[in-house]
């Protein structure tokens, strides 16, 4: 009856056990995922898109993400909660990263944080780990860098693969406990997964990574458009849309509420 820790994650890699990760942003859904046994829940800066309605993850702030992180932490018992550090809150210096990450741990109730980048954030990773904060890396397609990447596209094809492998190794060396590989060719993800002793968490990285992550609204078919790498395991969009229309029709027709859903005197 304790939370999943970085030691459990390390042990899973030793044993060759694969594990699932999902995003979560609110208490109700976080509890469902926790009770379903998802060992790691990420309060992603994808909240920018799915909660706050921004076009990219660039605008979302620490102050917008912290309350979501806290609600997910309060609603769960077993999952490790990973807080995603937003754009501009850690790139400046290791000191800035530590100040931000400490807020996610103290105010957000997270047990770990995630940040984007490889060698360029190695000093940040070292500083956080030295301070007692587990860090998950994230390389490949790093959405906070959409403006320098020039769009959302596959990363690490051809020559660029060696750079990503070097980034992954540097993150491991800096003390990261896991690394997300987003939107990279399967053979590159396989090479990185083999060469690292920490687990790789794939999203659009093929079946070879140690773990897999999806944004939960994509996984459950609530998001209107999804990338090629997303599989929808339910059709919540249709379910919710039909429930909404039925509710509206019954209100207009006067059939809801009926006696069963009303109080007697
Ligand atoms: O913000 C997010 O949802 C993420 C995952 C998709 C890895 O960073
Ligand atoms: Na993210």
What do these coordinates show?
The protein is α/β, with parallel strands linked by helices. It folds into 2 domains: 6-234, Alpha-Beta Barrel (TIM Barrel), CATH 3.20.20.60; 236-265, no CATH class. Helix content is 42%, strand content 14%. Helix 5 (94-106) links the parallel strand 3 and strand 4 (112-114). Helix 2 (27-35) crosses helix 4. The model has no long low-confidence stretch (mean pLDDT 98). Residues 44-46, 84 line the site of sodium ion.
- Uncertain spans, ≥5 residues at pLDDT below 50? none
In order across it, which strands form the biggest sheet? Answer: 1-2-3-4-5-6-7-8
| CATH topological fold name of the largest domain | TIM Barrel
Average of per-residue pLDDT values: 98
Could you state the order of secondary-structure elements as H and E? HEHEHHEHEHEHHEHEEHH
The 3D shape can be described as globular
List the total number of helices: 11
CATH architecture of the largest domain: Alpha-Beta Barrel
Helix and strand content put the structural class at alpha/beta
What bound compounds does this protein have? 3-methyl-2-oxobutanoic acid, sodium ion
